[in-house]
Amino acid sequence: MRVSIRSGFGGVAAAAAALGLAELAALVTGARSAPIVAVGGVVVDHVPAPVKDLGIAVFGVHDKTALIIGTVLLLTAYSFGVGVLARWRWALAVAGVVLFGLVGAVAAATRPGAGGTSVIPSAVGAAVAVLVLRHLRRRAGAAEIDDGAGRPYEVEESRRRFLRDLGIVAAAAAAAGIAGRMLTSRRAVTAARESVALPAAAEPAPVLPAGVEVPGVTPYVTPNRLFYRIDTALVTPQVDPEAWQLRIHGMVRNPITITWADLLKRPMVERYVTIACVSNEVGGDLIGNALWLGTPIKALLDEADPLPEADQVVQRSVDGWTCGAPTSVLRDGRDALLAVGMNGEPLPVAHGFPARMIVPGLYGYVSACKWITEIELTRFADFDAYWVPRGWSALAPVKTQSRIDTPREGSTKAPGPITIAGVAWATHRGIAKVEVQVDEGPWQTAELAAAVSADTWRQWSLTWEASAGRHTLRVRATDLDGVTQTPQEAPPAPDGATGLHQVTLDVG
Ligand SMILES: Nc1nc2c(c(=O)[nH]1)N[C@H]1C(S)=C(S)[C@@H](COP(=O)(O)O)O[C@H]1N2
Ligand SMILES: [Mo]
After folding, report:
1. Does residue 358 sit in helix, strand or coil?
2. How far is 478 from 401, CA to CA, in rounded Å?
3. By Cβ atoms counted within 10 A, which residue in 61, 209, 282, 395 is the most buried?
């Protein structure tokens, strides 16, 4: 029994050594060829239908951490099993390690943009795992039981040596893993980003009118560090602007490739645009508003000269992720930008450095490709972008929504005048009216804060004479087309949640 447990730990240590060395090897072959990241990436791209139907449109930061922790736990259990097996059936244990290496290698080799060397980290890891496993198996006292040869160690001595070697392997694995990670992040584009000097905008942003903000409501401009982040990337793509290119091709008469220097020479505009995630629940916070600096994509598309049948513009990221938006929308004159700046800085790496798309009025998953490197003109009938085969709509204009930011759900207030306030958005259509309902009372028109453009959210407020008791507040918005938000509740999938945000509070 004790020997089995020791052998199990030997298996875990062998797996740790394998992953540590694989991280080091991935320094040469690319961060996405490291087995954990490669396998995680495959899992992300093949989320089973039940999970998808729960409405996890897109992986947020927490989903990724959960995925990595889950993978490590599974791996620990698996390698413990392989370690125990090593004591009884060496050949089977080796097969277990080979399988583990194969899974990593196949995952790495099939990732978008993977080269032939991407299998190396998994292969190196598996080889090291076999060596470590063999050594620790001997040390664990398995050898003499298995083959009956050799003189058994004294129990104490054997245990001491096993623990010492286990410690050495664990330390070496951790050192290799940490060194690999650290060197990878040193390679990161942080330095390149810091040395970018953004061009001035030919058309600077409108000055924010006084009174765009109501006290107690989310800031009108979302600071970069608070801006929601959603993408499928397990390791944030590190794109060197000097090596960056954007290719516009497909069904065009004049394919174009531009470099970073070319891009920075193009006319730049600065615009406030609110972007939202289709996964945002009613009342949720997967939405943000920033000042984007970018060049209008319409001009670039006009230069490429799309064929009339090319009804879809597919944007492709360096990591293979794609989204597709109607060509007509990107050319209708709205401020659809190939953006390089966010709130006065180069795009943060997590938000797409060096370049991404921002399209007012469309959800991010159909329009806002980060780390963009390719634009392909095609037809909706010919190509499904990333989320479409996963059950999300190919066309996804942002739905009119409103949210109560104050008072908070479950709060307690004194009777008397209370400010009810929040945000509303119908991006690119604009907000015409916001109304609030207290309990089952009449809908009351709220006061709208100053508007910057139809492309951004708008704050609103209403003063309410609160009487003692428990109350429920509801909000609804009407867009400038005159369409009022539906009270009908729908989940985020397939094209955005609907329903009215409500907040319950106690007055007394
Ligand atoms: N390369 C890439 N771009 C992407 C995504 C992605 O998974 N990969 N997700 C999209 C989604 S679903 C949204 S909502 C926005 C979010 O942009 P943000 O993370 O800058 O807020 O990015 C879009 N661009
Ligand atoms: Mo999203």
Report:
1. strand
2. 9
3. 282
The closest residue, in CA terms, to atom 13 on ligand 1 is 364
**Three-class DSSP category at 201:** coil
Percent of the chain at pLDDT above 70? 94
Pocket test for ligand 1, best of 47, 230, 234 (most atoms within 8 A of CB): 230
Read off the tokens for 347: 């795009």
> What is the position in ligand 1's atom list of the atom closest to the CA of 58?
12
Work out the pLDDT band at 305, boundaries 50, 70, 90.
very high
pLDDT score at 10: 92
Nearest atom, ligand 1, residue 365 CA: 12
User: Which residue, judged by its Cα, is nearest atom 5 of ligand 1?
Assistant: 231
| CA 365 / ligand 2 centre spacing (Å) | 5
Atom number of ligand 1 nearest to Cα 363: 14
pLDDT above 50 for 55: no
Q: Which residues contact 10 (CB under 8 A, 6 or more apart)?
A: 83, 86, 132, 133, 136, 137, 139, 140, 162, 166
Instruction: Provide, rounded to the nearest whole percent, the portion of the chain with pLDDT above 90.
Output: 75
Q: Tell me, what's the pLDDT at 143?
A: 43
- Express each pLDDT in 310-343 by its tens digit: 999 999 999 999 999 999 999 999 999 999 999 9
| Predicted pLDDT at 39 | 87
Instruction: Report the topology of domain 224-378.
Output: Sulfite Oxidase; Chain A, domain 2 (3.90.420)
Q: Whose CA is nearest to atom 6 of ligand 1?
A: 231
Identify the residue whose C-alpha is closest to ligand 1 atom 9. Answer: 231
- List pocket residues of ligand 1, CB cut-off 6 Å: 58, 227-233, 277, 317, 321, 351, 364-365, 368-371
Closest residue to atom 15 of ligand 1, CA basis: 364
Residue 58 burial (CB count, 10 A): 22
What is the rounded distance in angstroms from the CA atom of residue 459 to the CA atom of residue 425?
9
Q: Is 401-507 in CATH node 2.60.40.650?
A: yes
What pLDDT is recorded for position 147?
Answer: 45
The number of the ligand nearest the C-alpha atom of 386 reads: 1
Return the domain boundaries, the chain: 3-187, 224-378, 401-507
Which stretch of 25-39, 58-72, 168-182, 476-490 has the lowest confidence by average pLDDT?
58-72
Q: What is the pLDDT of residue 154?
A: 63
